[in-house]
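Researcher: Sequence recovery benchmark, item below. Answer with residues only.
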């Protein structure tokens, strides 16, 4: 891998570490200002864990024999002096393969999921938590030759009958190509491969997804619906010798094009094998013109910009790196691809972390800062009262004590008065939870799964899934309707608090029901997007369709489980600023009353109390400045419109 790619990954690590340090500083700041509690500790812990567990996912997609695995070898494993992943001529990557480093187990391994698991409705996600279902092959990373031999296991095949192959989800057009003697067909032995490998970049969070020809290996919809959308960059491999074929276009239109539009992924079409265009009898200029024409044609066919189409020779790049042939390396054009991949990968991940971690952390700091601002305002008032006690004015002290007692009683009265509004909001959130309760959803899922099991035709399966989608959309609409009412209650409660207690709060963070509704629509949309091709492909093989729909049902259930967790968290967090502010206000009033009570006995320490309040106000101002620095630190991580923070960091180091 190029120095620049590694350098940008280093910069990304530093960028994440800086966010982690800022979160730790905020935790200490909260403790110092007596604002720390279990709720906020739980939120900070989740943010920090999310930051640690983030992976950078790079997916390689394309038809058979386009050189996906060879490109991975040349990009990441050339330092071993040979091909680590099997990429000889012919079919090599027989099943989707994930290369990463397992941080939990912290050891190398190769795990293979047997192809026979396609006969079950269990999803790939569920199988990940069933280690006993996988075949594990020892991975000796100390020897490149031993490792290559072990990884070659991924290419294993087996012969089965035509009927068995159909039951496993292989279609007639595929089986024709795989047909051997005695009506036996040769199919992949494995459904999925997980490779935990202590490569430097993998240990730092890079995950590589190597896929077989999506148009040729049977149906594995979870690959399209889950694994590919999780990627921050997708490399779509084409052959420079063939251009965009009909099967290439089918893959692009069915699996990649919509992902690019929906998720703003970094997507690149790589014209591999440009060395097939090299002609010793033609000038370099003439060859370059031919490559340029192919780039323009490819961009027009795929409806993307020409800068997203990159010519490369993965094989020549690998040879050049192994032999340290700089001239060949330049001609392979691999370095430009490395540059664009590193920038795109990290910029997209930067956006994800901003949305999932930094914005929430920034919001926490802003809430806490507002609490300190209100405390400072109250202390200024109390300081002014003490400063008004000039001379021997016992009557004024008595008056202040009386006013303070009245303030405390009025505060307690308002505290009681606001309780019904709080309880009303709490009851409304319980209604929200009941709308998407596990029991309600389990009933819908149970009905759907029973219908899927009992359905005799593919048409029947599609009809039952449409009914399921209608049911969950109805549930989501009800949740959105109730959430709008809940959000109005939250705003009303905050307004009442401000009016009754005379203290400012930030606007309440509303429950994002509409955004969640769009997320559910996207899950359904992605599923329906594959329906036509699946219906055409599997008209006679409802088992594959059942597996696909079972996976979709699981995805919908996971969505609602996540929504419930988000709702529970929101319920706790929306009330938290109010209760924290009320506790602080009550303590300030009570402490001030006690100070005034002491002054009725002796005024000897009046100046000391005024100075003490002044020091406290100054300290709060310093703490507010620290909070502003924390906010600025988070704001500085906001993804730039033109250029990634990470790339700027990396460039600054050169």
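Model:
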């Amino acid at each position: 891998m190029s120095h620049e790619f590694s350098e940008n990954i280093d910069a990304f690590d530093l960028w994440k570490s800086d966010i982690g340090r800022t979160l730790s500083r905020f935790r200490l700041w909260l403790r110092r200002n007596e604002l720390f509690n279990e709720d906020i500790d739980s939120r900070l812990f989740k943010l920090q864990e999310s930051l640690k567990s983030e992976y950078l996912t790079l997916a390689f997609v394309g038809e058979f024999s386009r050189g996906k695995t060879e490109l991975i070898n040349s990009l990441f494993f050339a330092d071993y002096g040979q091909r680590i992943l099997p990429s000889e001529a012919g079919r090599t990557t027989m099943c989707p393969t994930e290369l990463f480093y397992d941080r939990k187990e912290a050891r190398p391994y190769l795990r293979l999921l047997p192809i026979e698991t396609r006969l079950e409705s269990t999803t790939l996600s569920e199988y990940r938590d069933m280690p006993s279902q996988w075949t594990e092959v020892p991975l000796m990373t100390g020897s490149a030759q031993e490792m290559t031999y072990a990884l070659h296991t991924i290419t294993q095949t087996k012969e089965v009958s035509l009927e068995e192959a159909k039951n496993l989800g292989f279609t007639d057009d595929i089986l024709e190509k795989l047909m051997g003697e005695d009506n036996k067909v040769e199919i992949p032995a494995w459904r999925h491969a997980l490779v935990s490998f202590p490569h430097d970049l993998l240990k730092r969070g890079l995950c590589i997804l190597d896929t077989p020809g999506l148009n040729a290996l049977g149906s594995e919809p979870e690959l399209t619906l889950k694994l590919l959308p999780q990627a921050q960059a997708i490399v779509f491999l084409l052959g420079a010798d063939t251009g965009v074929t009909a099967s290439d276009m089918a893959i692009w239109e069915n699996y990649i094009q919509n992902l690019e539009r929906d998720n703003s992924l970094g997507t690149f079409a790589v014209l591999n094998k440009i060395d097939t265009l090299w002609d010793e009898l033609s000038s370099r200029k003439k060859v370059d013109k031919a490559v340029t024409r192919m780039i323009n044609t490819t961009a027009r066919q795929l409806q993307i910009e020409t800068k997203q189409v990159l010519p490369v020779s993965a094989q020549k790049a690998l040879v050049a790196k192994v032999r340290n042939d700089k001239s060949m390396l330049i001609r392979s054009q691999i370095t430009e691809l490395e540059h664009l991949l590193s920038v795109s990968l990290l910029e997209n991940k930067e956006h994800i972390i901003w949305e999932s971690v930094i914005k929430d952390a920034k919001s926490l700091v802003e809430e806490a800062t507002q609490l300190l601002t209100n405390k400072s305002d109250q202390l200024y008032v109390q300081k002014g009262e003490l400063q008004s006690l000039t001379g021997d004015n016992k009557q004024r002290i008595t008056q202040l004590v009386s006013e303070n007692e009245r303030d405390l009683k009025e505060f307690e009265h308002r505290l009681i008065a606001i309780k019904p509004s709080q309880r009303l909001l709490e009851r409304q959130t319980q209604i929200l939870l009941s709308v998407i309760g596990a029991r309600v959803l389990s009933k819908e899922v149970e009905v759907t799964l029973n219908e899927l099991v009992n359905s005799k035709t593919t048409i029947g399966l599609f009809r039952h899934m449409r009914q399921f989608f209608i049911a969950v959309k109805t549930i989501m609409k009800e949740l959105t309707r109730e959430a709008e009412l809940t959000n109005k209650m939250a705003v009303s409660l905050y307004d009442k608090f401000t009016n009754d207690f005379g203290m400012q709060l930030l606007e309440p963070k509303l429950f994002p029901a509409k955004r969640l509704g769009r997320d559910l629509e996207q899950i359904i949309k992605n599923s329906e997007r594959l329906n036509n091709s699946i219906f055409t492909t599997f008209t006679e093989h409802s088992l594959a369709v059942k597996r696909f729909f079972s996976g979709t049902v699981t995805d919908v259930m996971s969505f609602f489980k996540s929504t419930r967790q988000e709702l529970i968290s929101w319920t706790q967090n929306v009330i938290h600023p109010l209760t924290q502010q009320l506790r602080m206000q009550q303590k300030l009033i009570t402490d001030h009353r006690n100070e005034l009570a002491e002054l009725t006995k002796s005024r000897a320490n009046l100046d000391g109390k005024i100075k003490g309040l002044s020091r406290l106000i100054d300290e709060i101002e310093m703490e507010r400045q620290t909070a502003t620095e924390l906010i600025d630190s988070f704001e500085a991580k906001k993804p730039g419109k033109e250029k990634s923070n990470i790339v700027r960091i990396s460039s600054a180091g050169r």
